[in-house]
Protein backbone atom coordinates (compact mmCIF):
# COMPACT_ATOMS: atom_id res chain seq x y z
CA UNK A 1 0.00 0.00 0.00
CA UNK A 2 1.28 3.44 -0.92
CA UNK A 3 2.24 6.01 1.72
CA UNK A 4 0.59 8.81 -0.31
CA UNK A 5 -2.81 10.38 0.14
CA UNK A 6 -5.48 10.61 -2.55
CA UNK A 7 -3.96 13.88 -3.79
CA UNK A 8 -0.47 12.47 -4.39
CA UNK A 9 1.07 14.06 -1.29
CA UNK A 10 2.45 12.38 1.77
CA UNK A 11 0.19 12.75 4.82
CA UNK A 12 1.27 15.43 7.29
CA UNK A 13 2.46 14.42 10.75
CA UNK A 14 0.06 15.24 13.56
CA UNK A 15 0.95 18.41 15.48
CA UNK A 16 2.81 17.64 18.68
CA UNK A 17 4.16 19.66 21.56
CA UNK A 18 7.89 20.28 21.28
CA UNK A 19 10.13 18.19 23.48
CA UNK A 20 13.29 19.36 25.19
CA UNK A 21 14.54 21.34 28.15
CA UNK A 22 12.79 24.43 29.48
CA UNK A 23 15.31 27.24 29.12
CA UNK A 24 13.06 29.66 30.99
CA UNK A 25 9.48 30.61 31.83
CA UNK A 26 8.31 34.20 31.28
CA UNK A 27 5.12 36.08 32.08
CA UNK A 28 4.88 37.87 28.73
CA UNK A 29 5.62 36.95 25.14
CA UNK A 30 7.81 40.06 24.84
CA UNK A 31 10.09 38.77 27.63
CA UNK A 32 10.46 35.38 25.92
CA UNK A 33 11.04 37.07 22.57
CA UNK A 34 13.78 39.28 24.04
CA UNK A 35 15.64 36.17 25.27
CA UNK A 36 15.47 34.66 21.78
CA UNK A 37 16.68 37.98 20.31
CA UNK A 38 19.57 38.02 22.77
CA UNK A 39 20.58 34.49 21.80
CA UNK A 40 20.24 35.38 18.11
CA UNK A 41 22.58 38.36 18.50
CA UNK A 42 25.12 36.01 20.11
CA UNK A 43 25.05 33.86 16.92
CA UNK A 44 23.18 31.04 18.72
CA UNK A 45 21.25 28.52 16.59
CA UNK A 46 17.78 29.94 17.25
CA UNK A 47 16.19 27.34 14.94
CA UNK A 48 16.56 24.98 17.91
CA UNK A 49 14.29 27.16 20.12
CA UNK A 50 10.51 27.12 20.48
CA UNK A 51 8.32 29.57 22.42
CA UNK A 52 5.30 27.80 23.92
CA UNK A 53 2.34 29.67 25.41
CA UNK A 54 0.75 27.78 28.32
CA UNK A 55 -2.77 27.90 29.77
CA UNK A 56 -4.33 29.68 26.81
CA UNK A 57 -7.38 31.82 27.38
CA UNK A 58 -9.65 33.63 24.94
CA UNK A 59 -10.29 37.23 25.91
CA UNK A 60 -13.13 39.09 24.21
CA UNK A 61 -13.12 42.82 24.90
CA UNK A 62 -16.44 44.55 24.25
CA UNK A 63 -15.73 47.75 22.32
CA UNK A 64 -19.22 49.18 22.00
CA UNK A 65 -22.88 48.83 21.17
CA UNK A 66 -23.73 47.83 17.62
CA UNK A 67 -26.35 50.03 15.96
CA UNK A 68 -27.70 50.36 12.43
CA UNK A 69 -25.50 53.44 11.91
CA UNK A 70 -22.36 51.68 13.09
CA UNK A 71 -23.16 48.58 10.99
CA UNK A 72 -23.71 50.81 7.93
CA UNK A 73 -20.47 52.75 8.50
CA UNK A 74 -18.40 49.60 9.03
CA UNK A 75 -19.92 47.95 5.96
CA UNK A 76 -19.35 51.07 3.86
CA UNK A 77 -15.71 51.30 4.94
CA UNK A 78 -14.92 47.67 4.13
CA UNK A 79 -16.86 47.90 0.86
CA UNK A 80 -14.97 51.05 -0.10
CA UNK A 81 -11.64 49.25 0.43
CA UNK A 82 -12.78 46.36 -1.77
CA UNK A 83 -14.08 48.79 -4.39
CA UNK A 84 -10.83 50.74 -4.26
CA UNK A 85 -8.90 47.53 -4.88
CA UNK A 86 -10.99 46.65 -7.93
CA UNK A 87 -10.85 50.26 -9.13
CA UNK A 88 -7.06 50.23 -9.02
CA UNK A 89 -7.04 46.93 -10.94
CA UNK A 90 -9.28 48.50 -13.60
CA UNK A 91 -7.04 51.56 -13.68
CA UNK A 92 -3.90 49.49 -14.16
CA UNK A 93 -5.19 47.00 -16.71
CA UNK A 94 -7.37 49.05 -19.05
CA UNK A 95 -6.21 50.61 -22.30
CA UNK A 96 -7.48 54.08 -21.40
CA UNK A 97 -7.05 54.40 -17.62
CA UNK A 98 -9.05 57.11 -15.88
CA UNK A 99 -9.01 58.02 -12.19
CA UNK A 100 -12.80 58.10 -12.37
CA UNK A 101 -12.77 54.27 -12.46
CA UNK A 102 -11.10 54.17 -9.07
CA UNK A 103 -13.44 56.70 -7.48
CA UNK A 104 -16.56 55.10 -8.97
CA UNK A 105 -15.49 51.61 -7.89
CA UNK A 106 -14.81 52.84 -4.33
CA UNK A 107 -18.22 54.55 -4.13
CA UNK A 108 -20.06 51.53 -5.56
CA UNK A 109 -18.17 49.26 -3.15
CA UNK A 110 -19.08 51.52 -0.23
CA UNK A 111 -22.75 51.44 -1.23
CA UNK A 112 -22.88 47.66 -1.51
CA UNK A 113 -20.86 47.27 1.69
CA UNK A 114 -23.25 49.57 3.55
CA UNK A 115 -26.28 47.60 2.33
CA UNK A 116 -24.65 44.30 3.26
CA UNK A 117 -23.73 45.65 6.72
CA UNK A 118 -27.30 46.82 7.40
CA UNK A 119 -28.86 43.55 6.18
CA UNK A 120 -26.38 41.48 8.19
CA UNK A 121 -27.07 43.50 11.34
CA UNK A 122 -30.85 43.24 10.84
CA UNK A 123 -30.62 39.45 10.53
CA UNK A 124 -28.35 39.02 13.59
CA UNK A 125 -29.59 41.91 15.72
CA UNK A 126 -31.02 40.01 18.68
CA UNK A 127 -28.12 37.53 18.84
CA UNK A 128 -25.26 40.01 18.94
CA UNK A 129 -25.86 43.71 19.65
CA UNK A 130 -22.26 44.67 20.43
CA UNK A 131 -18.84 44.90 18.83
CA UNK A 132 -15.74 43.29 20.26
CA UNK A 133 -12.18 42.19 19.65
CA UNK A 134 -10.79 38.73 20.36
CA UNK A 135 -7.37 37.79 21.70
CA UNK A 136 -5.78 34.53 22.71
CA UNK A 137 -3.50 35.06 25.70
CA UNK A 138 -1.25 32.69 27.60
CA UNK A 139 -0.63 32.65 31.34
CA UNK A 140 3.09 32.20 30.71
CA UNK A 141 5.55 31.48 27.93
CA UNK A 142 8.31 28.88 28.02
CA UNK A 143 11.33 28.64 25.78
CA UNK A 144 11.94 24.99 24.91
CA UNK A 145 15.40 24.03 23.67
CA UNK A 146 17.21 20.97 22.36
CA UNK A 147 18.80 19.38 25.49
CA UNK A 148 22.20 19.28 23.76
CA UNK A 149 22.21 23.09 23.51
CA UNK A 150 20.94 23.99 26.99
CA UNK A 151 24.39 24.50 28.56
CA UNK A 152 25.56 26.68 25.66
CA UNK A 153 22.38 28.82 25.82
CA UNK A 154 22.71 29.26 29.60
CA UNK A 155 26.35 30.30 29.11
CA UNK A 156 25.34 32.93 26.54
CA UNK A 157 22.54 34.24 28.78
CA UNK A 158 24.78 34.40 31.85
CA UNK A 159 27.07 36.90 30.12
CA UNK A 160 26.17 40.54 30.70
CA UNK A 161 24.29 42.20 27.88
CA UNK A 162 26.26 44.86 26.02
CA UNK A 163 24.24 47.97 25.21
CA UNK A 164 23.97 48.92 21.55
CA UNK A 165 26.17 51.78 20.46
Outline the secondary-structure elements.
Elements: E1 21-26, H1 29-41, E2 49-54, E3 57-65, H2 68-93, H3 99-124, E4 130-137, E5 140-145, H4 150-158
Antiparallel strand pairs: 1-5, 2-5, 3-4
Helix pairs in contact: 2-3
Characterization of this structure:
- The chain has helices at 29-41, 68-93, 99-124, 150-158, and strands at residues 21-26, 49-54, 57-65, 130-137, 140-145.
- The chain has two domains: 21-56 and 138-157, Alpha-Beta Plaits (2-Layer Sandwich); 61-135, no CATH class.
- α2 (68-93) runs antiparallel to α3.
- Strands 1-5-2 form a three-stranded antiparallel beta sheet, with helices on one face. Strands 3-4 form a two-stranded antiparallel sheet.
- The chain is 45% helix and 21% strand.
- The chain is of the alpha+beta class.
Helix content: 40-55%
Total number of strands: 5
Q: Main sheet: which strands, in order across?
A: 1-5-2
Shape: elongated
Average residue-wise pLDDT: 87
Low-confidence stretches: 1-9
Task: List the keywords.
single chain, 165 residues, alpha+beta, Alpha-Beta Plaits, 2 domains, three-stranded antiparallel beta sheet, two-stranded antiparallel ribbon, 5 strands
Q: Care to give the gist of this entry?
A:
The protein has 165 residues and is α+β, with helices and mostly antiparallel strands.
Amino acid sequence: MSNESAFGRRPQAQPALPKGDVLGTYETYVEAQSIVDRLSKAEFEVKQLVIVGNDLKTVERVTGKLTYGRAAATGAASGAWLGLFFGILLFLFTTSPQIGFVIAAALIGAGFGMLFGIVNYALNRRRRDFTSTHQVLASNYQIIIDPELTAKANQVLSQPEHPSV
